[in-house]
Amino acid sequence: MAAADPISAGERDLAQVLAASCAEPPAAYLQNEVMAGVADGTLPVIDVPQVDISLLSSPCPATSKAEAQKLGSALSTYGCCLAVNHGTTSAFLDSVRDVLNDFYRLPLEEKTRHARPFGNWEGYGFDEIPDNYGSLDWSDRLMIMISPEEHKKMQYWPEAKPPNFRRIVEEWASKLEVLLEKVLKGMATSLDLDEKSFVEEMGEPRIVARFNLYPKCSRPDRVLGLNSHTDGSAVTFLLQDKEVEGFQLLLKDGQWVRVPVTPTDALLIKMGDQGEIISNGEFKAPLHRGALNTQRARTSIAVFCIPEAAKEIGPAKGLVDETRPAKYKKITDYERDYLQESNHRTLIDSLKL
Ligand SMILES: O=C(O)CCC(=O)C(=O)O
Ligand SMILES: [Fe+2]
């Protein structure tokens, strides 16, 4: 649990001023050592497998099953895949990127009208810093629950500025609800489960959007935009920057790789810890991080799809029998514990049987 926010908003602004002037970042942001390969382009690039979401609901059973198997295989090998034909046009995704950029261009007084209060995760501003947290993240973020309707806290949603924010994000939320259901059905189908199985395990999903801005940084070899972590969600959708690369992933063999910028209308689908648990470890939540560069700020939007708080989450029934024991304990409201945990791997590890 965090006792107090050790870094004030003033210091955070300083980080951005420093970024602009290319001076040395404050010590609290520095990783212990130079991270060879993180920022200098020497890490290998992976070709993330593509999944055509429209084919998951093809009237031809062989076609939909084959696409579901592509999804399942990507999620078990890489913990992620690139979704195409996911029901949202490039033009609409550009308008989502535009409202993010318009928000971050507002003066600080305007953004802090939606500031995250101490003890909350929702709102504008940096994350609460748990005890024993490593180096700070070189990032600014706005985090809001975008679905279901009854859990939305509109005081954290930009209203008049930027003018289209609410309309665009609400429209995106309804598209993402539909996409989530298709992806959960595809995941279940790939494991030979009833297609509704994961949808039912999740209950009424909570969908949280995190609008990330990573300012440029003079020391991308010592500072991360986002420290390495797994997501606490079941499934995460990531809308990447169209031009600036920075998302990196740890493969099963221990190799960090760069994920290239995404084609304009593709969305990255990523497993979170609860996706790993529900699938009894068939799908892997990958460790990932955000790298920086000296030239340009980078943005991304991560959308976390989280099971209903009251639902008990554990390996899906159809995946456990005498020959395939449950690999994880059951848990309720994993997300609450996750948000308080400084080392996210420890939390899912504590559930392993
Ligand atoms: O910015 C990125 O590419 C990654 C974002 C992310 O992992 C997160 O917000 O959890
Ligand atoms: Fe993440």
UniProtKB/TrEMBL annotation:
Lineage: Eukaryota, Viridiplantae, Streptophyta, Embryophyta, Tracheophyta
GO molecular function, one term: metal ion binding
Listed name of the protein: Fe2OG dioxygenase domain-containing protein
Keyword Iron on entry: yes
Organism: Linum trigynum
Key words, A-Z: Iron, Metal-binding, Oxidoreductase, Vitamin C
Family in the record: Belongs to the iron/ascorbate-dependent oxidoreductase family.
Superkingdom to which the source organism belongs: Eukaryota
Entry-linked InterPro entries: DIOX_N, IPNS-like_FE2OG_OXY, IPNS-like_sf, Oxoglu/Fe-dep_dioxygenase_dom, Plant_2OG-oxidoreductases
Chain ranges of the Fe2OG dioxygenase domain: 205-307
A Pfam family the protein falls into: DIOX_N
